[in-house]
Design brief:
four-stranded mixed sheet, Nucleoside Triphosphate Pyrophosphohydrolase, alpha+beta, single chain, three-stranded antiparallel sheet, globular, 2 helices, about 130 residues, about 20% helix
Length: about 130
């Protein structure tokens, strides 16, 4: 089981930042929350800070855990933890992904998400509706 973290970054309009995976990566052209694998000896929050800097060139401050799931892809099993974060430094730029968008509630159906990200998005939308 691979430990993975992702950032739930919301802007002042309540829109969430999503990124599109590039050609050549597994699940290419699908949308996801920015993040990645937790390296050996690294905390989830430290991994998320590192991934946001590497992938989008931004500094973040992490908040509470928003959701977590275990998901079995055909090629790998992951434990994905989604952590609320806010941009504390810089503006997002594409360094690894092929596109990024800010989406509002109800717009997620316009995008094809990686299955684990789609599942975690359903969970956070369900929590928000409660």
């Amino acid at each position: 089981m691979i430990e993975v973290v992702a950032a739930l970054i919301e802007n002042s309009e309540g829109k969430l930042l999503i990124c599109r995976r590039p050609e050549g990566k597994t699940r290419a052209h699908l949308w996801e929350f920015v993040g990645g694998k937790v390296e050996s000896g690294e905390s989830g929050r430290d991994a998320l800070i590192r991934e946001c800097r590497e992938e989008l060139g931004i500094g973040i401050e992490t908040g509470e855990e928003a959701a977590d799931i275990r998901y079995d892809y055909p090629d790998v099993s992951i434990h994905l933890v989604l952590i609320r974060a806010r941009i504390s430094e810089g503006k997002p730029v594409l360094r690894e992904h092929e596109d990024m968008k800010w989406i509002g509630p109800g717009e997620e159906s316009d995008y094809s998400f990686c299955p684990a990200d789609a599942e975690i998005l359903r969970k956070i939308r369900q929590k928000a509706a409660e």
